[in-house]
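Ops channel
N.P.: pipeline sanity check, posting one input/output pair.
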């Protein structure tokens, strides 16, 4: 792939870029400090040069969304693309001002690559959600959810809103260094953002079916019979078939740890 890298990628970054840049959906489960954002920016840049996207949307924790615009893009986006790019980070405290409203309208109508970074909290605000919806309708977006364990809880409103919005972007990514902070069940919603029907195709249409497939449980009725009291819910004893789960998501994901990255310099 002939791409004008602004910063030379490390071996693992180049490999991920070359393997996944044109994938519609992909998960970068890379530990902090291994360079996930560069792969995203280079992939988005490549797709822009191929005229497959004209928008980059990043949802990230508050403050991190600013870094995407002020640091990551500045460092990694090739100059030939940067000259055609308009980037803006959503500022909730100024969203009511005429200046902010004018800037987001300019972003929406920009003729080159439009980049919007917004925090999770701002995404869930009325103005934020409405503008993201407009951005997704008007731009062909490369949609990235950074620190994607923020959408690991299926019933949470934030999770449901972000997962539902994913279908409007032709290219989607999730990024996190800790994909399963509390256990394998945490990957369910992250993968659903990438592809709402992914688990259905595995025969696991609901979160309940997913948990039954990969968890060992003691039912409330069994506890009642054994212990003489009803806990009100089934008890998770352990996880099972985690290797099967890993096999399911391996084709759409990459896992990198610092120990594996031999050419990465010390911070």
């Amino acid at each position: 792939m002939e791409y004008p890298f602004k910063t030379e990628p490390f071996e693992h970054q180049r490999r991920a870029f070359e393997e996944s840049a044109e994938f519609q959906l992909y998960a970068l489960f890379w530990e902090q400090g291994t360079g996930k954002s560069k792969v995203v920016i280079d992939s988005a840049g490549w797709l822009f040069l191929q005229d497959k996207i004209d928008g980059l949307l990043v949802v990230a924790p508050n403050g991190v969304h600013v870094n995407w615009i002020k640091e990551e893009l500045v460092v990694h986006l090739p100059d030939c693309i940067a000259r055609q790019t308009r980037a803006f980070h959503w500022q909730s405290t100024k969203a009511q001002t005429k200046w902010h409203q004018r800037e987001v309208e300019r972003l929406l109508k920009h003729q080159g690559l439009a980049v919007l970074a917004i925090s999770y909290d701002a995404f869930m605000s009325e103005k934020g959600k409405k503008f993201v919806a407009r951005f997704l309708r008007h731009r062909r977006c490369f949609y990235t959810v950074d620190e994607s364990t923020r959408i690991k809880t299926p019933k949470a409103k934030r999770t449901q809103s972000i997962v539902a919005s994913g279908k409007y972007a032709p290219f989607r990514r999730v990024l996190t260094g800790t994909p399963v902070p509390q256990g394998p069940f945490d990957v369910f919603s992250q993968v659903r953002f990438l592809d709402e029907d992914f688990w259905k195709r595995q025969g696991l249409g609901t979160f309940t079916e997913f948990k039954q497939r990969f968890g060992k449980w003691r039912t409330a009725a069994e506890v009642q019979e054994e212990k003489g009291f009803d806990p009100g819910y089934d008890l998770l004893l352990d996880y099972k078939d985690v290797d099967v789960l890993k096999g399911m998501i391996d084709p759409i994901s990459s896992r990198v740890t610092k120990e594996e990255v031999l050419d990465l310099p010390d911070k």
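N.P.: looks fine end to end. The longest strand covers residues 113-119.
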